[in-house]
Amino acid sequence: MTLTVTISSASKSAVALEFPGKSASEVTIRDVKVALASKVKKLYVERQKLSQEGDKKALDDGLKLTEVGFDARTEQCRLSVKDLGPQIQWRTVFIVEYLGPILIHPLIYYLPRVFYGSEVQHSAVQSYVFAFVVLHFLKRELETLFVHRFSHATMPAKNIFKNSAHYHIFSGLLLAYDIYRPKYASASNFIVNTYRNNPQFLNACAAVWLFAELSNLSTHLTLRSLRPAGTGKRGIPYGYGFGLVSCPNYLFETVGWLVICVMTNSIAAWLFFVISTGQMAIWAAKKHRNYKKEFGKDYPRGRKAMIPFIF
């Protein structure tokens, strides 16, 4: 009897896939996706979401058919597929997201007459923030290319517009337009004889910002070491930053943006800080729950999600 997997779809007739000479304990969900893609060209592997019939939960690629409702009497397994639509690489999404602020900030910083109708003699705080923002997103681009490993290869292509808007609008256009305007110029009353023009204060802020950025990078390197290339597996993270929270990368990024808020007291900076910190808190809570669910009693009990001793 030949091993057969029947794939049903809400919009199309069922497709029968045969695996001659193989047992259910050998065939994985990934193998089924590859076989389905060879029969239905539109449904390339990354576009498929396979579930057990009557269940909407996506099945992990590494699961064997014996783990997903295989009927040993008939040598058959019934699964359902959902078309996730056109997909785009997560790495590409990140590159596009971070490229926005890298391009927008220099445009507004170096071409103030175009945006404000007059030249702006930049103050030290404007120059510091310009350097912080551009260096931050250049770092993010380099991490995307050389550090990050992704548990999922792709995402729906349409989401790139929503994801990019967060960075292009809030940390790009709004932040740059607010901070590089004449209000923050070197001769402005908002700057002259205030803490925003104090070299010691600015240097202290730069030191805290650099600490946050390097700490963030360190945690990303730790997370990379826990995920073998080409897999979605992960281990329990330990080491610098992970003693008190599950997601110190989000904690350190929050500190970096808080520095810019304190330096400028910019409405746009505070708006981006609140939105981005809220989003990171949601991601941190989800990752924290997943860690505890995946590792159970082995996961350190004292850890919080993102903010030590609090959350």
From TrEMBL:
Metabolic or biological pathway, per its Swiss-Prot or TrEMBL entry: Lipid metabolism; fatty acid biosynthesis
E.C. designation(s): 1.3.1.93
Membrane topology category: Multi-pass membrane protein
Family annotation (Pfam families): Steroid_dh
Enzyme class: oxidoreductase
Domain 3-oxo-5-alpha-steroid 4-dehydrogenase C-terminal: 154-311
Role: Catalyzes the last of the four reactions of the long-chain fatty acids elongation cycle. This endoplasmic reticulum-bound enzymatic process, allows the addition of 2 carbons to the chain of long- and very long-chain fatty acids/VLCFAs per cycle. This enzyme reduces the trans-2,3-enoyl-CoA fatty acid intermediate to an acyl-CoA that can be further elongated by entering a new cycle of elongation. Thereby, it participates in the production of VLCFAs of different chain lengths that are involved in multiple biological processes as precursors of membrane lipids and lipid mediators.
Organism domain of life: Eukaryota
One GO term (biological process): very long-chain fatty acid biosynthetic process
UniProtKB keywords: Endoplasmic reticulum, Fatty acid biosynthesis, Fatty acid metabolism, Lipid biosynthesis, Lipid metabolism, Membrane, NADP, Oxidoreductase, Transmembrane, Transmembrane helix
Organism whose genome encodes this protein: Pleurotus ostreatus (Oyster mushroom)
Catalytic function, reaction form: a very-long-chain 2,3-saturated fatty acyl-CoA + NADP(+) = a very-long-chain (2E)-enoyl-CoA + NADPH + H(+)
Cellular localization per UniProt: Endoplasmic reticulum membrane
One GO MF term attached to the UniProt entry: very-long-chain enoyl-CoA reductase activity
Transmembrane segments: 257-285
Family statement: Belongs to the steroid 5-alpha reductase family.
Protein name (Swiss-Prot/TrEMBL): very-long-chain enoyl-CoA reductase
Keyword Transit peptide: no
